[in-house]
Amino acid sequence: MIREITSSTNPQIKHLRALSSSKKARQESDTFIIEGWRGIQTLLDHKSPYYNIEQLVISKDWNKPLPQTIDTLVLPAHVFEKISDVRNAQGILAVVSPIEMEHTLPTTGKFLLLDNLRDPGNLGTLIRSAVGSGFDGVLLYGDCVEPFNPKVIRSTMGTFAFSKVWNITPPELFQTLENGFDLCVTTGLDGENLYDAAFSDKTILVIGSEAHGVSEELSERATKKITIPLQPECESLNAAIAGSICMFHMQNSHR
Amino acid sequence: MIREITSSTNPQIKHLRALSSSKKARQESDTFIIEGWRGIQTLLDHKSPYYNIEQLVISKDWNKPLPQTIDTLVLPAHVFEKISDVRNAQGILAVVSPIEMEHTLPTTGKFLLLDNLRDPGNLGTLIRSAVGSGFDGVLLYGDCVEPFNPKVIRSTMGTFAFSKVWNITPPELFQTLENGFDLCVTTGLDGENLYDAAFSDKTILVIGSEAHGVSEELSERATKKITIPLQPECESLNAAIAGSICMFHMQNSHR
Question: B123 and B78, same structural domain?
């Protein structure tokens, strides 16, 4: 179904704008927005096990073919720009909803746990690296940035559609540890050298917040501490870089 | 020497603002700006072999001790904000100049070559990872983002002060290759698996631009092609992530 709206005061336009800018609007409607052709194309080409496209929204001058089975809204360019979150809008966005899933705890596999990670670009990049390296999921612990924030979605470059990302509470995490998972924290000092360490097939890798590192409660529960060896002139690495280095090493070393 | 300026129309204020916003102003004066306490503290604590602090500029409410040997300019908070490049300015910036150095080509060591890299955050993060991993320098090839752009400097988190970064022309690069360097390009497809590869002590690692990857002229000259193994759901990695994974692996594997 293709419909056209021309007025920027139409309630649907207001709703789309709210989805772009407001976490509350996303939570209440259980939908979020993905903007840009590359990510949307990924979702159209490869059926995602975790998300559905509810609606496509395009600018009037959009000229690439789109599937006719998806509800599509056509807007004048100036109205499209009002709901777009990016500077040079390509003229396409999609309203996406998560598929209802049973929320289960990990029983085996390698998971990335982000401890109060605040930066949207870091979260998106880490989701992309987790999918790329073959990690089994991303756990959000504490007060992390919301994963459906448009900047997060954009920096995943379409990979969010293939990634299990969920919030984990302290009791859930500690129950998981009782199931035999290693809690492996990354620390700037006094951990085992990443390149000397061996990793269990049941590992939760913890990356701390940009400002404060790994929180004390997780450090105390850690069964393993690792350190990426750094030259003295460099105090620390960016959180997304550190997490990606660890994930790719853990998946590809000792082969 | 401590001086105070109160008017935002003072020519010195205009000059500082230009250093923040204009590449031309930075090139003409051969100085640039570093903003934020963390980076400046690094420069004050550890003498940089490559850069001098010419001047400190602080907001009137700055209250941490500073060395009295450096020319210091004190500004009212509202004037400081006018020259600041960040949202929540901390109230300190430094004007920095490069130390005159002989511009020599690498004779041995591991170097990162960035091929038309455009994103300031990626360049800054890659400089940080190059210093952290112990790479010997960063070569800028083609039309890369200017390394003295404030966003680049900020994302290096102070490590630019310990990093050799220079522009390399095609003839200089090709002469370096004649000196026995491997030109090792990273590619999404059909390269040798990074984790199976061995690396020479004379290697130039090439990371391509965000939009177009490694340019054809460098691909043709490559003596080695490597690929980071990726799951099919993830087409590529962020340039800063890919470069950092390769550098840390090359420096720490096979020990």
Answer: no
